[in-house]
Amino acid sequence: MLDYSFSYGDLEIFLLILVRVASFIFICPFFGGNQTPNMVKIGFSLFLSIILYGAVPIVAPDYNTIVGYTVIVLKEVMVGFLIGYSVQICEMISAFAGTVADMQIGLSMVNIFDPNTNEQVTITGSLYSQIITMMLILTGMYQYIIKALVDTFTLIPVNGAVINTDRMFAAILEFMRDYIVIGFRICLPVFVITFITNIILGILAKVSPQMNMFAVGIQIKIIIGLLIMFVTVTMLNDASNFIFLKMKELMEQFVYSMQSGG
């Protein structure tokens, strides 16, 4: 006979699972984001928590007062937030690449509102971000992200998060280095071609001073930049692969920095 009993202690454990999952959902792009209604986020978090309850190893937390339970809740919020934030900041690499490309093309003055981040981004940055999101869906990367969240309950038990500042600091420094490297890799074709175009325009300005190179150069750079983006659009699958590999690496480093022991 099946036992459907649900004690007060079970409710406490379930709420801790829900807090970690909800913190992850609310910050992680694609699953949450500002475009997703809050009721959908709450419903998905509750549904995922119900599935995880009983399927992940849980040790009853040890606390004596309401303050102790509050500290445990804050730990779970921190774990879910950092895992989701690692995905979000990796997705921002595409916006950085688009900003650099638009600075070279001449479209950096035209900004649009990105509802996912509540920030002003350039046209190409928004385009790259949308493409990366589509790649995330088509490649099944969202499944890996969910599995990574589930695995955190084994690697970082409930009330088992311990911030190792040296590990976290090293992970952030490494990410900032790769953030710039990967961003420039994505926009490198546009950057190189427009740089060569600027050199040619500079030579022409010396050869023919009577020509208005400012007015001519803006149009030429926009046309060449858009043409290069159209030709190199097939390279975006490799760019998304770079970003997804960094997502996996950063999530692993963040989890490692929150594990207790060596």
Give me a quick take on this structure.
The protein has 262 residues and is mainly alpha-helical.
Please tell me about this protein's structure.
- Helices cover 73% and strands 3% of the residues.
- With 262 residues, the chain is mostly helical.
- A hairpin with a 4-residue loop joins strand 1 and strand 2.
- The protein has a two-stranded antiparallel sheet with strand order 1-2.
- The mean pLDDT is 81.
- The protein has a domain of 177 residues.
Quote the average pLDDT: 81
Strand-residue proportion: under 5%
Q: Measure the end-to-end span.
A: 44 Å
> Rg, please?
23 Å
Primary descriptors:
262 residues, two-stranded antiparallel ribbon, elongated, single chain, mainly alpha
Break the fold down into its secondary structure elements and pairings.
Layout: H1 8-27, H2 38-52, H3 66-105, E1 111-114, E2 119-122, H4 123-138, H5 141-155, H6 165-207, H7 213-231, H8 236-257
Antiparallel strand pairs: 1-2
